[in-house]
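Note to self: keep these together.
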Amino acid sequence: MANEYGIKELASGHKTNVDIVFVHGLFGHREDTWTGLQNKDILWPRDLLPADVPNARILTFGYDAGVLKWGSDAQVTNGAMESYAADLCDALARLRSGTDSAERPIIFVAHSLGGLVLVIGDRTAPSDNSSLIAHHIQGMIFLGTPFRGSRHATWGDIIWNILNRKSSRNLKDLKETSEKLKILAEAFPEVLRKRDIEGPRIGVAFFIEMFKTGKIRIVEEDSAWIPGRGDHASIRADHITICKFDSNRDEGYGSVLGAIKKFAEMKTKKGERSDVRKRTSLVMEELETDYNVYNMSRAVAQPFIIMER
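Structure:
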C-alpha cells in the first residue's frame, strides 16, 4: 500500500538534536520489521527508544520492498535498488528542510542487506539531496549485514539464502548483482577511512546473528563486520529476529541502544560538516577509478541502499 512507503515519524523528543532513521530490507516493512518477537504490538523504535534517547526524532522509511519481478526468467530488477536510495535521500532531505533540521546529525539503523547503507554525495552535484544527507551521517548500525563472502558462502550464496529460493540458477542477474554488492561493500571501508582522516567521522557498529535461520546461518560472523572498523558484537538471534525486541530488558536491545547513544553523543569539531562536501568529492574521485575497472561507473554518482527484511 502507498501509505506504507516514505518517511514516517514515530517519535520526536524534547530539544531534539539527532535524527535516528530505521530502514528495513528487501521484503520488509517500515514498521513490521521492527516489532517485538513475542509481542507484535511493540514497535520498539516508537515504544521503547524514546524513553532512552529523549533528544531524538525517530523516523522509519518504507519503500516497495518486493524487488523481484517474476517473469519467465525470474529476473531480478537491479535498477530498483538505486531508486530506493534516491527516494530515501529525497524524502529525508525534504523533511529536514521543512522542519528546520537540515543540519542535524543522522544515525541510520538497518537490517541485513539494508546495512549496506552507503550514502555518498554525488561528486558532480554536491548540493543535491544525497549529498546533503551524506554530509550529516554521524552513525551507522548494521544488523546482520553481509559485507563480504565468508569461508562457507560466496556473495551469491549469501544473497540466495536471504532471498530464500530453491535454485540460484533461476535468477538471471544473481551473479551480476552479487558482484555489484561486493564492489560497493569493499569500497565502504575506504569511505570510512577518509572520513576518519578528514572529518566528520562516521561511527559504525556491526551486530552479528548467533543462531541459524532454519538450517543455515545466513550471514556468518566473518562476513558481518569489517575488521578494524568500528565496534562489533553478537546478538542471540537468527537473521530474521536480530532486529526484533520486546522489552528494554532484552540483551539485544541494550546492545543496539548502547551504539545509538554512543553515536548520538559524538562531538563534531566546528566547521567539519560545512567543509565535508569538498572532501566527499575527493573521495568519490578516487573510488570512481576502482568502480570503472568493473564497469560500475553508473553506481558511483548515486547513493546506494539495498534492504532485506
